[in-house]
Design brief:
Layout: H1 3-9, H2 36-43, H3 58-71, E1 75-79, H4 82-94, E2 98-102, H5 108-117, E3 123-127, H6 133-137, E4 144-150, H7 162-171, E5 176-179, H8 184-187, E6 197-201, E7 215-219, H9 233-236, H10 247-251, H11 255-268, H12 274-285, H13 287-306, E8 311-315, H14 325-332, E9 339-344, H15 347-357, E10 362-363, E11 373-375, H16 387-392, E12 400-403, H17 409-424
Parallel strand pairs: 2-3, 2-4, 4-5, 5-6, 10-11
Antiparallel strand pairs: 1-7, 6-7, 8-9, 9-12, 11-12
Helix pairs in contact: 1-3, 3-12, 4-11, 15-17
Length: 433
C-alpha cells in the first residue's frame, strides 16, 4: 500500500465483537488472564497479548503498527511525548555508558537532553562542528553507541545527508538514529537510506492539529546487534530482570523495539493514553494531504519573503542556491519543508516587532499544526543555549521560525505583509500566485 492508504487503513480491521469501523478507544488499565500460566507467559515475553496498559494497549497498538508501516519498519513504540521517545531511543543503546555523537543542528530541548541530562546518567552527548559526515566521523570512538541527527533540523532547516551519515555510523559498528518529525515519512523514509531507528514527536505534523502530545520510536530491524556483542551487551547477554532472556536471540530483528518496550516503557512509564492514541490516529489519516498543502504554501511564503526589500535573509532549502537544495532533491523529491526561518532588516528589535504584530499566524513554540505558527527561537526554544551554541544550531538573535499551515495562501501572506509593515515601515503587498 502507498502512504495515503497506509495512513487510513494500516494496523486495524473492524474488530470481531462489534465490527466497529473506527478504531475503538480501549480505556482500560489492565487485561484479564485466561489462567495463571497465561499470565506468566505474557510476563515472560513468551506469548503475545496485553497485560497492563503501561506496557501496551490495543488502541496504541494500532497507532504503532500504522507508524511502523508508514516508515517501513518492523515495529514501533508509542510513548507520551516526542522527548520521551528520544530519551528511550538513546538509553536503549547506551544504558551501559558511552556516548552519542550528534549533528549540532537540534531542537533546543533535544540539545539539553544530550548536553546536560544524559551525562548525569553516564551517557555523553558529543556535538560535531557541522552536519557533514566527516565532522561526525571525527567524534566516533570505541565508546560511541549511536550517531544521531534530525533529518530536517528544527529550526535550522538543514537537510542531513542520511545515506552518508549511515555509512559513517555503520563503518564504526553503531546505529544511526534520526528524528524524522519535520519531514514525516510522507516526505522522507530514512530507512531507505540506511538509518536504523526513527523517532517522532507525534504532536507535530503526524498528529497535525496541535491538540495532543505523543511520541514514537520506530525500529527498521536492520541493525545487527548480535554482530557487535561487546559494544551492545544489553542485547547479547542475559537480562536478569527477565530470567536470563537474551534480546538478540529471542527477538532477532525486533530486538531493539522489544527491549525499549519491555525495559523502559515497563519501568519508566511514559505512557501514551488510549484517547491520545485515538486522536493521533485521526490526524494521521489526513497527513498525506496536509503535507502537500504545507509544502505548497511554504514555497509561496518563502518566495514572497525573498522578494521583499524589508527582509534581510530567508533560509529556505527549496531555493536553488541553498547548500541543501541537492539533498532536498535526493531525499525529499524536491519538496522543501514547510518549516523555515528568516530575518527582518533592523535585527532583533524589528524581528520582535514583526512577531508581536502577527494576527493570523499564532505565536507559540509548536510546529506542524494545520494552523500557521511563528516562533522566536532565541527567546524560547533555544533560550537555554549559549549564543555560540545557538549560532551553530542555526539560530540568530533576529531569527523568526515559521511553520506554514494549510490556510489560504493569500491570508497567510497578507498577515506577514502587515506585520512587516509595522516592523519596517514600508508596506508593499505582493499577491501570491
Amino acid at each position: 500500500m502507498r502512504n495515503e492508504t497506509i495512513a487510513i487503513h494500516a494496523g486495524y480491521e473492524p474488530e470481531a465483537t462489534t465490527h466497529a469501523v473506527a478504531v475503538p478507544i480501549y480505556q482500560t488499565a489492565a487485561y484479564a488472564f485466561d489462567s495463571a500460566d497465561h499470565g506468566a507467559a505474557l510476563f515472560n515475553l513468551e506469548a503475545e497479548g496485553f497485560r497492563y496498559s503501561r506496557i501496551a494497549n490495543p488502541t496504541s497498538a494500532v497507532l504503532e503498527k500504522r507508524i511502523a508501516q508508514l516508515e517501513g519498519g518492523v515495529g514501533a513504540l508509542a510513548v507520551a511525548t516526542g522527548q520521551a521517545a528520544l530519551h528511550f531511543a538513546f538509553v536503549n543503546v547506551a544504558d551501559h555508558g558511552g556516548n552519542i555523537v550528534s549533528v549540532p543542528q537540534l531542537y533546543g530541548t533535544t540539545h539539553t537532553l544530550l548536553s546536560h541530562i544524559l551525562p548525569r546518567q553516564g551517557i555523553t552527548g558529543r556535538f560535531a562542528e557541522s552536519d557533514g559526515p566527516d565532522a561526525v566521523a571525527k567524534l566516533i570512538d570505541e565508546n560511541t553507541r549511536a550517531v544521531f541527527a534530525e533529518t530536517i533540523g528544527n529550526p535550522a532547516g538543514n537537510v542531513c545527508d542520511i545515506e552518508a551519515l549511515a555509512k559513517v555510523a555503520h563503518a564504526h559498528g553503531v546505529p544511526l538514529i534520526v528524528d524524522n518529525t519535520v519531514a514525516t515519512p510522507i516526505l522522507l523514509k530514512p530507512f531507505d537510506y540506511g538509518a536504523d531507528i526513527a523517532v517522532h514527536s507525534l504532536t507535530k505534523f503526524l498528529g497535525g492539529h496541535g491538540t495532543t502530545l505523543g511520541g514514537a520510536i520506530v525500529d527498521s530491524g536492520n541493525f545487527p546487534w548480535a554482530k557487535y556483542a561487546e559494544r551492545f551487551p544489553a542485547y547479547n547477554k542475559p537480562d536478569a530482570s527477565y530470567h536470563g532472556l537474551v534480546y538478540a536471540e529471542r527477538f532477532g530483528r525486533t530486538a531493539y523495539i522489544e527491549r525499549a518496550r519491555s525495559v523502559y516503557q515497563r519501568t519508566m512509564g511514559s505512557v501514551l493514553s488510549p484517547f491520545n492514541a485515538f486522536l493521533l490516529l485521526q490526524g494521521i489519516e489526513t497527513v498525506a494531504l496536509r503535507m502537500e498543502r504545507h509544502v505548497e504554501n511554504a514555497r509561496k511564503v518563502a518566495e514572497f519573503l525573498r522578494g521583499d526589500s524589508r527582509v534581510a535573509w530567508v533560509n529556505y532549502t527549496g531555493f536553488a542556491d541553498s547548500p541543501y537544495y541537492p539533498l532536498v532533491q535526493k531525499y525529499l523529491d524536491g519538496n522543501a519543508s514547510s518549516l523555515f526561518t528568516f530575518g527582518i532588516k533592523g535585527g532583533m528589535e524589528a524581528g520582535k516587532t514583526f512577531y508581536d504584530a502577527l494576527k493570523l499566524i499564532t505565536r507559540l513554540v509548536n510546529i506542524g499544526d494545520a494552523k500557521s505558527l511563528a516562533c522566536h527561537p532565541a527567546s524560547t526554544t533555544h533560550r537555554q543555549m549559549s549564543a555560540e551554541q545557538q549560532r551553530v544550531a542555526g539560530v540568530l538573535p533576529e531569527t523568526i521560525r515559521l511553520s506554514i499551515g494549510i490556510e489560504h495562501i493569500s491570508d497567510i501572506i497578507e498577515d506577514i505583509d502587515q506585520a512587516l509593515d509595522k516592523a519596517c515601515g514600508s508596506a508593499r503587498l505582493e499577491a501570491a500566485e
